[in-house]
Design goal:
This protein has helices spanning about 10-15, 20-25, 45-50, 60-80, 90, 115-125, 140-145, 165-180, 185-210, 210-220, 235-250, 285-300, 330-345, and strands at about 30, 35-40, 55-60, 85, 100-110, 130-135, 145-150, 225-230, 255-260, 275-280, 305, 315-320. It is α/β, with parallel strands linked by helices. Bound molecules: 2-deoxy-2-amino glucitol-6-phosphate (AGP). It catalyses: D-fructose 6-phosphate + L-glutamine = D-glucosamine 6-phosphate + L-glutamate.
């Protein structure tokens, strides 16, 4: 993509709409149908080394950290390697035990975020193997890491990350599939995930075609005192990212919680002026999530659901197409980018340059 606005009023809108092509690009040339896997040329991790990995720790900040949460789940699910994500800004200061059998992954759009770079440098000093999942080719983090996966989202100008978030999640799916097929993921499951990845660009286009409805919903919820975002397991990182997106660009206060944690405190906040956005993949937690919606309704809370079918308990549902459950977080985040965008627009915000924020935080 270019810096040309191509008829869009803001870079954020342009970049949301570029996701169809961007996802196509991150997949291009990487799928290996013969062995139901993917080729990741720059990874610099051979099969023997990949089999020796005992843990994966993903480090990033802000939206990059949220993609790390998605990445960790994908790696655990597809490659069955224990994995988690942590804000790089915290990790670098807690004198973490650096384990030689752990694969560390730094994730960053710009590749220049100081906290993430400092975490990489600390890890390298202690002899760890660190890979990068990075968008900007040749950036500091790309240079400091031992190898990695480029995200190929193209230039992202808006301070608020959208297309890079989605492409990074897809890059993690590729990495998880690659590690899975070296370990114990079956050919059948490899093929299933590949087919799901191939469906993504058209399904993203379908979500984007629903923009008018999301715009109307944004107008309806724009005057909320605060918004609650909830999800469980696969839905939770999506809820976190959607909450961050809304805060950054519209300045509407938002909280994100695992739906299971609501009853342990945040339920006290629920009232008609504090609507809930519930991210509801059609997985084995759907029934439990529906019970949480009932608890919210019992407190007169309004609910906007993101789900694969209309939700009876919700006031409104944004329906997203079905894919493989493992890939649900990728698609479910996209309507919530549009919700944040149209909320900000309705409130007259400076969308591409939200107050107090910079595109890349190169200082501590
Ligand atoms: C994204 O919308 C944010 N502006 C911010 O959280 C960002 O993701 C974070 O600062 C990390 O940036 P990076 O991906 O360039 O490292």
């Amino acid at each position: 993509e270019s810096y040309d606005m191509g008829g869009h009023d803001t870079y954020m809108h342009k970049e949301i709409h570029e996701q169809v092509d961007a996802v196509d690009r991150v997949l291009r040339g990487r799928i290996d149908d013969r062995f139901a896997t993917v080729r990741l040329g720059g990874l610099n991790l051979d099969a023997r080394e990949a089999r020796g990995v005992r843990r994966v720790k993903i480090l990033g900040c802000g939206s990059a950290y949220h993609t790390g949460l998605i990445g960790a789940q994908l790696i655990e699910e597809l490659a069955r390697i224990p994995a988690d994500a942590e804000p790089a800004s915290e990790f670098r200061y807690r004198n973490a035990v650096v384990d030689p059998d752990t694969l560390y992954i730094a994730v960053s759009q710009s590749g220049e975020t100081y906290d993430t770079l400092a975490a990489v440098q600390e890890l390298k000093r202690k002899g760890a193997r660190v890979l990068g999942v990075v968008n900007v080719v040749g950036s500091a983090i790309a240079r400091e890491t031992d190898g990695g996966v480029y995200v190929h989202a193209g230039p992202e100008v808006c301070v608020v990350s959208t297309k890079c978030f989605t492409n990074t999640a897809v890059a993690f799916a590729l990495l998880a599939l690659h590690l899975g097929r070296i370990r114990d993921l079956s050919v059948a499951d490899g093929k299933r995930i590949i087919a799901g990845l191939r469906r993504l660009p058209e399904q993203i286009a379908e979500v984007l075609r629903g923009e008018e409805k999301i715009k109307e919903l944004a107008a309806e919820y724009a005057n909320a005192k605060s918004m609650m975002f909830i999800g469980r397991v696969r839905g939770y990182p999506v809820a976190r990212e959607a909450s961050l997106k809304l805060k950054e660009v519209s300045y509407v206060h938002a909280e994100a919680y695992p739906a299971s944690e609501l009853k342990h405190g945040p339920l006290a906040l629920i009232e008609p002026e504090v609507p809930t956005v519930a991210v509801l993949p059609d997985d084995d937690l759907l029934e439990k999530n529906r019970a949480t919606l009932e608890e919210i309704k019992a407190r007169s809370g309004r609910i906007l659901a993101v789900a694969h079918q209309e939700q009876e308990k919700a006031d409104h549902t944004i329906v997203v197409p079905r894919n493989e459950v493992e890939l649900d977080p990728i698609l479910m985040g996209i309507p919530l980018q549009l919700l944040a965008y149209h909320t900000a627009l309705a409130l007259g915000r400076d969308i591409d340059k939200p107050r107090n924020l910079a595109k890349s935080v190169t200082v501590e």
